[in-house]
Write a structure and sequence with these properties.
With 143 residues, the protein is mainly alpha-helical. Helices cover 59% and strands 6% of the residues.
Length: 143
């Protein structure tokens, strides 16, 4: 699902994102972004316009400090996986991340699969929420 709305307040964007939908703020996206959002939605991913990303990040900053848990979660990832997560958290899809990092889309998708397994995320939305600290990180069991 994709929500297109003139609202960019943090509560609205975070609520929609937690529900698993993409969010495009009116006047804050182009036809390429709309196309990417539609493609992402067809495979169960979310897409955010730049102002929606900013609102999501602001929502994460307002959360009670869970810095240690977030740092432990991020420490599980390789430097490349951290780069991928940072770009994913801005609303970019696998193809766009690949272009930015000069990786194939398949390599990015492999990185995402590894990330989801390492941080026990159900998908991109869950991973981004954990990455930003908007939801509690799952307990990490290392053997």
């Amino acid at each position: 699902m994709i929500v297109v709305s003139p609202r960019t307040d943090t509560e609205t964007v975070v609520g929609v994102f937690r529900g698993g939908a993409g969010y495009l703020a009116e006047g804050d996206y182009c036809t390429h972004m709309l196309s990417s959002a539609v493609m992402a939605a067809t495979v169960g991913h979310t897409y955010l316009s730049p102002s929606a990303c900013a609102a999501l990040r602001e929502g994460a900053r307002r959360m009670p400090a869970a810095g240690d848990a977030i740092e432990r979660l991020r420490a599980l990832l390789s430097p490349r996986e951290r780069q991928v997560m940072e770009l994913l958290s801005t609303g970019l899809g696998a193809q766009e991340i690949g272009l930015r990092l000069r990786l194939s889309e398949k390599t990015v998708r492999n990185n995402l699969s590894n990330i989801y397994a390492k941080i026990d995320a159900r998908g991109s939305t869950d991973a981004v929420l954990r990455w930003l600290g908007a939801t509690p990180a799952a307990p990490v069991l290392r053997t």
